[in-house]
Amino acid sequence: MATKFSLTPITDLPISIKTFPKHPQAIRLFPLLPLNSPSSHYFFKRKAPSSQSLSVSNAVTEQFVESTQDSETTSLSSPSSSKVVFVVGGTGGVGQLIVASLLNRNIKSRLLIRNPEKATALFGEHDEDKLKVFKGDTRNPEDLDPSVFEGVTHVICCMGTTAFPSKRWDGDNTPERTDWEGLRNLVLALPPSVKRIVLVSSVGVTKFNELPWSIMNLFGVLKYKKMGEDFLRNSGLPFTIIRAGRLTDGPYTSYDLNTLLKATSGERRAVLVDQGDKLVGEVSRLVVAEACIQALDIDCTEGQIYEINSVQGEGPGSDTQKWKELFRAAHKS
């Protein structure tokens, strides 16, 4: 039996572009005003952005009209968090929201991306202790040097590509190379000290030979995602797998920042969590991003696979206790 609650939209992200050095090395991002407002249920009146650029400073020029805050949410914002979260796929639709939320919570983040320029364009410049960017590609094992994972405590993997041939397949970015080979390389490279890896997958992966899933799987996307899931499950690493429904409410590519900044779950803030690959429906990218971050520290999610949808109604926002209740309820369904 699925349970439902709500999610809070993420505030503005920055733009600012720099030139980065080429190939595997850490990219230093210089200090900028931190996103240190506590994560709460907020409603904003947005001031018109400057014609020069959008930056993190927009976050502190927001006028708070209403705000309700709980102690669970405040603890997530603590600048003393000992977590260091390594995000793979951090410039994709869900990944952008995950990284923005981690920064907003003052959680140290590490990114592995093919084009580091996107990181500063999306997230602004930060001290590298808060945000360190590595140029690399999980399809290339040599890019996954142990030094990349130094100090990392948790991992969120939300990389992927389109189910059908598209421009995103350019450069051999196919489901087989990304969802299977890339994930396998990542799992093999992770140190055993990692406390949790959260993987974003898809509903329907266990039914890729059945209609209507077989249509979506014409080019193997569900099959390769399932192969990746199985490899992670058998790796011995502590994992949580979030199988998302059809993604909505956010950017459909990582190239449209204006869409990202307008991302909102609207009235679809309620969250359905289930197990057994039974859910069929849609889910807000904001909901998926929040589920990944919450799963990092909720003990009962370790070794579990969940399907997640979002529907009209209120829900958990960033309240950890409500997310615990959702995940636990799914175990009984």
List the strand order in the largest sheet.
1-6-5-4-7-8-9-13-11
Number of helices: 10
CATH level-4 homologous superfamily: NAD(P)-binding Rossmann-like Domain
Helix percentage: 25-40%
Strand and helix order = EEHEHEHEHEEHEHHEEHEEHEH
**Shape designation:** globular
Rounded radius of gyration (Å): 19 Å
Q: What's the mean pLDDT score?
A: 78
CATH class: Alpha Beta
The main β sheet shows up as: 9 strands, mixed
CATH fold topology: Rossmann fold
Q: Which ranges are low-confidence, i.e. pLDDT below 50, for 5 or more consecutive residues? A: 6-80, 252-261
Task: Give me the secondary-structure category.
Answer: alpha/beta
- State the CATH architecture: 3-Layer(aba) Sandwich
Number of strands: 13
Q: How much strand content do the residues show? A: 15-25%
InterPro entries: NAD(P)-bd_dom, NAD(P)-bd_dom_sf
Protein name: NAD(P)-binding Rossmann-fold superfamily protein
Domain NAD(P)-binding: 89-297
Pfam families: NAD_binding_10
Plain-language structure description:
The protein is of the alpha/beta class. The chain has a single domain, classed as 3-Layer(aba) Sandwich (Rossmann fold), CATH 3.40.50.720. It contains 10 helices and 13 strands. The strands form 3 sheets. The protein has a 9-stranded mixed β-sheet with strand order 1-6-5-4-7-8-9-13-11, sandwiched between helices. Strands 2-3 form a two-stranded antiparallel sheet. The chain has a two-stranded parallel sheet with strand order 10-12. Strand 5 (108-113), helix 4 (117-123) and strand 6 (131-135) form a beta-alpha-beta unit. The longest helix is centred in the middle third of the chain and has 15 residues, at 175-189. The radius of gyration is 19 Å and the shape is globular. Residues 6-80 and 252-261 have low confidence and may be disordered.
